[in-house]
Amino acid sequence: MIEAQQLTKRYGEKTAVDGLDFTVRPGTVTGFLGPNGAGKSTTMRMIVGLDAPTSGSVTVNGRRYAQHRAPLQEVGALLEAKSVHPGRSAHNHLKALALTHGIPGRRVDEVIELAGLGSVARKRAGAFSLGMGQRLGIAAALLGDPQTVMLDEPVNGLDPEGVLWIRNLLTQLASEGRTVFVSSHLMSEMALVADHLIVVGRGRLLADTTVRDLIRETGGDTVKVATADPARLRDVLAGPDVVVTGRVGSEELQVTGLTAREIGLKAAEHGIALFELSARTVSLEDAFMELTRDAVEYHGTTGVESLGRPA
Ligand SMILES: Nc1ncnc2c1ncn2[C@@H]1O[C@H](COP(=O)(O)OP(=O)(O)OP(=O)(O)O)[C@@H](O)[C@H]1O
């Protein structure tokens, strides 16, 4: 379990992390999302003691990282900054790490297998592709068989097979009861792998919710219906959790709380003709954009003005 309380980090004038309160629970994959510069990496660095909070605190299983006697066996982390000696092989890098942390040597071979690095383990890590480097970083994170696993952008640079491997790995780690905290900009991937989400923007907490609820709140379960008799259809669909909206005089209604199928069946039962019946699909990406619209630090421009005018 990771618990942040009023976690704050300032760099001079800049507040990178601003009073964050959240809990990452074991047994599920928790996604950590936010636009560029939102404070995700800074938060993750504070979790593993690479940066000290300006105020507030963050603990892993009730203790600050530095207070754990064997931190590598407590929290395994893949952070953006790599610290692999380029001349060393993957095997030697992991062996050195194991030796200095009292981890048995056989675990090195286990994580090499787990990370799919068997065929390249004796090669210089400096010659590794981005994807292999990511796999080595993940192997190092898992070396201490930690209860808590934290990965910053783990799918970066991975090919589709690697992305699938990460997806299965994260699900597996969570199913073993571990705490899995993972940041990514790939929303489609997060939607598949994460159950819970912590969303930040400009250092502040924007949402602490499930993928389903976030999508629902953005209107993900709305069904659009068009009929010649909207007033009667409203009456037919009425129910405790059903909300029907629509402009007066319009044939179109927006319905939440019923599926397209349920609406179609009810309309047929009452002999009401429908002209259109379509579920609005909202992706996690849409929901994320909506939620973080005001918290994006670096907006891109696509307007012609930004390209300058020809002389
Ligand atoms: N060492 C530092 N000194 C000064 N400012 C910093 C430092 N580290 C981070 N920042 C600033 O703090 C803010 C948060 O940065 P951080 O890297 O944590 O964001 P992030 O959410 O991980 O972004 P990204 O998605 O781009 O990786 C940014 O505005 C960044 O410029």
Automatic annotation (TrEMBL):
Molecular function as annotated in GO: ATP binding; ATP hydrolysis activity
Official protein name in the record: ABC transporter ATP-binding protein
InterPro entries recorded: AAA+_ATPase, ABC_transporter-like_ATP-bd, P-loop_NTPase
All residue ranges annotated as the ABC transporter domain in the record: 2-227
Pfam families assigned to the protein according to its UniProt record, in alphabetical order: ABC_tran
PROSITE patterns: ABC_TRANSPORTER_2
Natural source organism: Streptomyces naganishii JCM 4654
Alphabetic keyword roster: ATP-binding, Nucleotide-binding, Transport
Similarity annotation: Belongs to the ABC transporter superfamily.
